[in-house]
Amino acid sequence: MFLGKMTRAGLGMIAALGLSTSIASAQESVEVLHWWTAGGEAKALQVLKKDLEGQGVSWNDMPVAGGGGEQAMTVLRARVTSGNAPTAVQMLGFDIKDWAGEGVLGNLDELAAKEGWDAVVPDALKGFSKYDGHWIAAPVNVHSTNWVWANKAIFDELGLKQPGSWDELIAALDKIKAAGYTAVAHGGQAWQDATIFDAVVMATGGPDFYQASMIDTDPDALGSDTMKTVFERMATLRGYVDDNFSGRDWNLATAMVINKEAGVQFMGDWAKGEFLNAGKVPDQDFLCFRFPGTQDAVTFNSDQFVMFKVGEDRQDAQMKLASAVMSPSFQSAFNVVKGSVPARTDVPNDAFDACGKKGMAELAAANKKGTLFGSMAHGHAVPAGVKNAMYDVITAHFNGEYDAATAVEELVNAVESAQ
Ligand code: BGC
């Protein structure tokens, strides 16, 4: 319309002044809601922002702080309810299915077919990126959540080896504590408690028990003696956390390990982004290893950019965003910084550091062996209602409100009423 009314001379002048591209780029923008506000996360996001800006698409940032994304989901609900959905939203697992069910998401089928996404995105992720056979989201990465991040100087100083079992872990934590350090750096927020819980469930009961309890929510598994042991172990770990843990953000807990105040943190591999951002090097300054007893299994979550239905004027930029996210070079550049590994299976591991290479190899091995499971804590095992019911019990127990036997009963009841 605007251009239609311009005279030839006017158009010529715009071209001469080089304004035509800036008019086009002013019209192209994406608004992206996410919770990547920690140093390493923000740095990784810059990779995407720059990529799009290079294509003339401006980036409208909508960060909502709060690891695990709970607050982000609350803000999103308000935005969509008021009829003003962002272009794209960082989202995890079952939340994606919920939004798809509401019929408010866009359709990426054409782009996905053109770029051959079906052949390069593993089924475990596709289960969330597609709904009713249609692509609705672009998977950015795969994080795995059953990691330990350790301060190498403390391990060297105390002559500690990487623990491979529960007993070895406790022996190591005892030594770290006795030496005057905080043994376990932890932030007391429900999703962080649940991240440790996932690992302890896997370590205590093994893959079949994880499947039965965290994914199938089988009442026998949830109410079992094994689950009681899981809660007892959680209480044991609570004894290695410092007094100020309540409400602490995960990245501040990571900083305690980085700064040699604490020995280890149990956290997903986004923690690596914080070490790298602080200039630390794997195997030199810090160690990454699987939570003892979970060496052969991987619990994962995948950040996906879910595309909402937007007006025609915003669709071209939305597709550019989706295409940028799925490009192999972006998947390498972004995940090297973020601590995760590519969502695509065809991205070479050359650019990744020792922890990244290990993460990629272990993910592939677990996938082959059938020991790759969605993380309950990070929305990939059960729908949000059940997850939140589990969170409540795990956190109440971790804060000493229940003993292990009561926690088991509460868990069975809470899950039953949330279903
Ligand atoms: C997300 C990560 C993020 C972490 C902490 C997880 O749920 O998948 O991308 O770094 O939360 O914010």
TrEMBL record:
Main subcellular location of this protein, as a coarse class: periplasm
One Pfam family here: SBP_bac_1
Keywords noted in UniProt: Signal, Transport
Top-rank taxon: Bacteria
Annotated Gene3D superfamilies: Periplasmic binding protein-like II (3.40.190.10)
Subcellular location: Periplasm
Signal peptide residues on this chain, from the entry's feature table: 1-26
Ranges in a coiled coil: none
InterPro entries in the record: Bact_solute-bd_prot1 (IPR050490), SBP (IPR006059)
Assigned protein family: Belongs to the bacterial solute-binding protein 1 family.
Function, as annotated: Part of a binding-protein-dependent transport system for a sugar.
Name of this chain's protein: Probable sugar-binding periplasmic protein
